[in-house]
Design a protein that fits this description.
110 residues, Rossmann fold, single chain
């Protein structure tokens, strides 16, 4: 897949924890480049996305979550379906940690 091929000047971080900041050089990379705001997409809303957004906020970064660029899944053992988990997670993140927007809004700002 073309999207899975590293570009020569592209930084790639392989995380080994829920947060993209905990086990990588991501924070240092962003700070070295003067980046103060990030956009988060990915999997899974209630796990890695949640951990990454909260860590970024705690580290002082501005954060935008691209709602339609995030996925979730059911937690059958807890009797929770993906939509409930997703909506609650997005609501909590929007309440204090990030701006939550659709990709259309992000693209319009480019």
């Amino acid at each position: 897949m073309t999207c899975a091929i590293d570009r020569p000047d592209e930084a790639v971080f392989v995380k080994r924890s829920s947060s993209a900041f905990a086990t990588t050089r991501l924070e240092a990379h962003l700070r070295e480049r003067g980046i103060t705001h990030i956009h988060v997409v990915g999997a899974v809303a209630g796990f890695c996305v949640n951990s990454t957004v909260r860590a970024a906020s705690d580290l002082g970064f501005g954060v935008t979550v691209v709602r339609d660029g995030v996925i979730g899944f059911d937690l059958l053992s807890a009797g929770l379906d993906a939509r409930v988990i997703f909506d609650v997670t997005m609501g909590l993140l929007a309440a204090d940690f990030a701006e939550v927007v659709e990709s259309e809004a992000v693209l319009a700002g480019l």
